[in-house]
Amino acid sequence: MQQKELGRFKRHQRIRKKLLGTSERPRLSVHRSLKNLFVQVVDDMSSKTVFSFSSLDKSFKQKAKGNKVNIAQKLGEFYGPKLKEKGVKKVEFDRGGYRYHGRV
Fold it and tell me: pLDDT tens, 18-52?
């Protein structure tokens, strides 16, 4: 593991100690690669993934154009209504050790 990734991993572990996803308020976990964004909505109490989506999804990729920051913003707008259909109204945001700006 590279030094930069190891630092992100340590930050993520520190954040995860404080966050816990429940069935009423699941944890929204973000992973950022160089080109794409991956998001999971997780209920930690039952160890189940409620919903997952990414910028690689074919239905999303056809509609989203622009730079990576715009695509990340459109990702939330595109999948927000689908989360409400699943019954998720509030989430605990897990930034995954990334800075809270730009794509996160």
Answer: 888 888 999 999 999 999 999 999 999 999 999 99
Within 10 angstroms of residue 71's Cβ, the number of other Cβ atoms is 19
For residues 65 and 74, is the Cβ–Cβ distance under 8 A? no
Q: Coil, strand or helix: which one is 72?
A: helix
CA 43, CA 64: separation in Å to the nearest integer?
28
Q: Return all residues near 88 (Cβ < 8 A) that are at least 6 apart.
A: 26, 41, 50, 51
CA–CA distance, 95 with 98 (Å, rounded to integer)? 6
Kindly give, in sequence order, each residue whose CB lies less than 8 Å from that of residue 57, ignoring residues fewer than 6 positions away: none
Using a 10 angstrom Cβ sphere, with 0-12 exposed, 13-18 middle and 19 or more buried, the burial of residue 97 is buried
pTM above 0.90, yes or no: no
